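Lecture 7 notes: from sequence to structure.
We start with the chain below.
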Amino acid sequence: MSEKSGNKRRIKLIKMKFQMRFTIIILLLMLLTGMVVSWGTYCLDRAIVNQLVEINVFKVLMTSWILLLIVIGVGLSILVSHRVAGPIYRFEKIFDKLRGGYFNQKVVLRKNDELQELSQKVNEAINFIQQEIVKERANIELISKQIEKVVEDLSKNPSDVKDFVKMCDALKDIVRQIKNINGAFIV
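Predicted structure tokens for the same chain:
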């Protein structure tokens, strides 16, 4: 989805399970960091804190600080995970359409979304498949015309061996061409 076309994602929790797991991990890391820093500060500066303010004021201040960090961490992790979850959601939609046979798709991500390189690779793969489909359709059309010609020639009842050999060669060529259809795909 492109920001230029006005298709900004309004829902920030697109892949809720992924984003919540991501948020919890970030939150736990921030909480652990906050606790370590707080404990270190508390231990190192205990004498100074006791002289300047009461210990209860210090506890409230530290608790407020940790709660603020948690709120900021949750908000940032949702915003950051949205830059990953949004593209994953877009890929899922594109793959659903491809599975339905619609190869006129292109992955378009927003400027700041993650997985830009993957979207380029997917677009290259889709482009390759599109080109191969066009080639194969042209080959099928050519083969169809050749078969029609052989059928027409057979309906005239070949009068000599030379005509019969020509038709056999044409049929062998058609068989070779049929075997080459979808040769670009390894299954």
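Points to note: DSSP finds five helices and no strands in the chain. The two ends are 32 Å apart (CA to CA).
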